[in-house]
Amino acid sequence: PALSSASPCTPCLPPGTEKTPDYWNEGARRRLELALALQPVTRRAKNIILFMGDGMGLPTVSAARIYQGQLAGGSGEDSVLAMETFPHVALAKVSWAVPGVVPVLSTAPNPHPTGLQTYTIDRQVPDSAGTGTAYLCGVKSNAKTLGLSGAAVYGKCHTTFGNEVDSILHRARLAGKSVGIVTTTRVQHASPGATYAHSVSRSWYADANMPKEALRDGCKDIAYQLVHNTDINVILGGGRMYMMPKETPDPEYPSDPAQNGIRKDGLNLITEWLSSKEVPELGQRGAVPRHHRVGMSYEHPGCPCWQGAQYVWDKKGLDAVDDDSVSHLMGLFEPKDMKYELNRNTSTDPSIVDMTEKAIRILRRNPNGFFLFVEDEIDHGHHSGRAKQALMETIMLDQAVARAGELTDPSDTLTVVTADHSHVFSFGGNTPRGNSIFGLAPKKAKDKRAYTSILYGNGPGYSIRDGGRPAASLPAAEEKDYRQQAAVPLETETHGGEDVAVLAKGPMAHLFHGVQEQHYIAHILAYAACLEPYAAEPACSTSRRASHSPRCSSQPLLTLLALCMASYLAGG
Fold it and tell me: What φ, ψ does residue 560 adopt, rounded to 5°?
């Protein structure tokens, strides 16, 4: 059971309703009944979707809830985000715990809240690379490193080798599932990078970003690893320039040299990726017709399913992709990161909802299931001190969560929503009910000047004029690029160190409980989907038989036989 979806509730109530005890007692009784009826789904998960709100701390979630409700015409406070309807909640720690104490993986039903601890081995307040390694690979590591254990040293190429750790995405692909990444950042960025890369520097996007000694010692850039490390079925986000040779014009901005490709090795990783999915031309022994080009997507004895690979770079191209004709799709929609939702050109750039839907429609065709990682750049809005940008990104991530729920079955799909870390973002000021989340506090500060409800602990919003801070004012504070005031001057606002939430529904979601270390997430995902190191669990063999039994019809086998005969005759 889940709570109702978001709606502007307050205006729908008769005047004075909230002032009666019956209103609150009845609402609480209904929620109690839902809680009593809640039963854990203890079967194993066929599919896993991990939504990552980069920088989505609890204050961000709360403020986004209010903003969403106000956009819908309500006061906002009683709005409900789609992610908030998930029945199981936990907290993840982002700061240090007792060394050597490992969270116990209990399979007993537990509906109690959970928290995650997000620190890294060397940082009290983490970055997105170290946290990505934790929640995707299952181990804590050092800041700024990707897919490596804590034995690897930031920036030291030679410490890479032998210290690699594999992500849940990689393990899911080895188990025969389809896998995908969706992000509004560049696909080589820290969070998505942790799904496939092993790098001692999160900044080694392309070979042009690497020091000569690292290249000499055999380290590969993150874009190269995207194409070569794991066979990823769906890749959607930004990051074109890191995939193309130096001075190659960008297809969307051909007259802007700043958007050109930057690779020094001359590789075009987009064409290389496409070529790696091709099969021989008709006329060669064992070939299949060109319109079936691409590698075997769903690798199971007796069930070869040949599909196509496709690359797109704008919304028109993405919309034109036939979900049933491709098993591999790469969509790179900007040279670097994608635009904020409030700045997005809706006719040329897909939204995170568009990309999530396309990914699910392609991935879910695999009878063995899929793993999908979805990230939104909430973080970038906060770093720039622009709260409106960050909160709209949060709302868009939540809309993607809602759409994913419509496209999947909660009985076989484990969906998890969490954050890698928080930010020094807050809102308060004794504001009245219905006050715009971007509005002013009702009373002026001690300096006799107005201030906004939303404030940052540090960042570019710090300003001193005429011996004091400038007074906040409307409507300026409501503008999308308005920078809320900050207490300490910094070029970019910083991450926060408090625990972040984990919200889950579907098979084994009840294992998210209490306050946990962040790397616990990866272990629950692996356990739920029978991936290593939990693939040999007794329940997994039963789960595999159930999911694999109907996987092949006679039609694909007959089609393959016909194609083989045609290719043999064509080859002489």
Answer: -60, -40
CB atoms within 10 A of CB 75: 17
319 is in an annotated binding site: no
Query: Does residue 495 have a known ligand-binding role?
Result: yes
Distance in angstroms (rounded) separating the CA atoms of residues 566 and 290: 13
List the single range of 120-124, 179-183, 192-196, 259-263 with lowest mean pLDDT.
120-124
- The superfamily (CATH) of domain 47-96+113-279+306-424+500-539 is Alkaline Phosphatase, subunit A (3.40.720.10)
d(CA 262, CA 394): 31
> At residue 401, does pLDDT exceed 90?
yes
Query: Binning pLDDT at 50, 70 and 90, where does residue 102 land?
Result: very low
User: SS3 sequence, 435-470?
Assistant: CCCCCECCCCCCCCCCCECEEEEEECCCCCECCECC
**pLDDT at residue 466 in the model:** 86
Structural domain boundaries in the chain: 47-96+113-279+306-424+500-539, 438-489
Angle in degrees, 0-180, between the axes of helices 387-407 and 352-363, rounded to the nearest 10 = 30
Query: Is there a binding annotation on residue 422?
Result: no
Known binding residue 54? Answer is: yes
Given 7, 79, 106, 128, the catalytic residue: 128
128 catalytic residue (yes or no): yes
Radius of gyration of the chain measured on its C-alpha atoms: 25
Is a pLDDT exceeding 70 seen at residue 406? yes
User: How many Cβ atoms sit within 10 Å of the Cβ of residue 294?
Assistant: 20
Residues 461, 442: Cα–Cα separation, whole Å: 21
Q: What are phi and psi of 458, to 5 degrees?
A: -155, 175
Confirm whether residue 382 is marked as ligand binding.
Answer: no
Tens of pLDDT along 286-331?
322 222 333 333 333 333 344 689 999 999 999 999 999 999 999 9
Residue 280 scores a pLDDT above 70? no
| Residue 420 assigned to a binding site | yes
| Tokens at 371, concatenated | 């793993």
